[in-house]
Amino acid sequence: MKEVFRMGMMKMMRSTTAPAAAALAFWTGSLLMVSIAMASDVIEKQEVGALLSEQRPVLGTVQAVTADQIKIDIGEVQPRFVPLKQAQEKSSAPIAVGDRVIIVLNEQNLVVDFHSADTGTSQHEIVKGAIAQALAVGQETAVITSDGTETSFPIRSQVRSKLAAIPVGISAIFLIDETGQIADATFTDVQAAKQAHHQPERKSPIKAPHNQVDGMIVDPLHANRITIQTPSGSKNSYEVRDNLHQKFAALQKGDNVILLIDTENKVIDMAKPRSR
User: Fold this and answer.
1) Of 53, 77, 95, at which residue does a domain stop?
2) CA geometry: angle 137, 141, 146, nearest 5 deg
3) Which domain range does residue 100 map to?
4) What CATH number is attached to the domain comprising 136?
5) What DSSP string describes 69-121?
6) 49 and 63 share a domain?
7) Number of domains making up the chain
8) Do 135 and 188 lie in a common domain?
């Protein structure tokens, strides 16, 4: 391709006057340089995008503040250290021991950014609340209660065991990444951690003890509740979790459903059986 281009340009230059040929050569060289620069810019942006996609945010707690750095515990064997000047530039308030922070690790597990957990980052959101129910089988999603509202979030695979260790109802901080998934979580304070230590029975088991109930809808969703009639003829009424209301809104009386009931006797999922 390059050879065809070169031969074509030489032919054009032979049929052109010397000044025009020089101008044409200059224009061609400039065009080639611009094309190379544009291609280089595209490659660089792709590399930067790939690099950013490999970064991961984690929550930490400030353990110590010295004259030139801060010591941060992120739940690993070794703490992380961030230059104090860099940390002060990212925080609007003085940094103190016990503060919750967000540090961003790159693909080499090195600290590349720092933010206060109170403000979060432009790409990450902080949700303060509590796990509303034991994690479902597979621990792929978590229902979080915050300010009286229940919201379901997907859980990143690397933090599923961490969320399972947080008991239901215990105050915690959840880090939501730019994809809307829970990227990390920790207790809000020492008191919450102590409370969790004394309530191990409220932690999510490897397989949460959920019950499956088959039946036909007798009373569609109303005032957060739904009533079904089981094959045995009994009528059961259940409260439906807030995050499922839209899913239940289309159901009508007489529809057959399969409900998944949690330990608090609330509906946490629903499916419609295949018609035969």
Assistant:
1) 53
2) 130
3) 56-116
4) 2.40.50.140
5) EEEEE-SSSS-EEEEHHHHHHH-SS---TT-EEEEEE-TTS-EEEEEETTT--
6) no
7) 4
8) yes
Q: What is the pLDDT of residue 64?
A: 93
CA dist 201 and 207 (Å) reads: 13
* Secondary structure of residue 12 in the 3-state scheme: helix
Same domain, residue pair 23 and 66: no
pLDDT digits (tens, 9 = 90+) for 120-171: 555 678 899 999 988 876 678 899 999 988 899 988 776 787 888 899 999 9
Structure tokens belonging to residue 24: 């044409």
* CA separation for the pair 57, 49 (Å, rounded): 16
Computed on alpha carbons and rounded to an integer, the radius of gyration of the chain in Å comes to 29
**192: nearest Cα among 174, 160, 167:** 167
User: Which range (22-31, 115-124, 220-229, 250-259) has the least confidence?
Assistant: 22-31
- Structural tokens at position 185: 């979580």
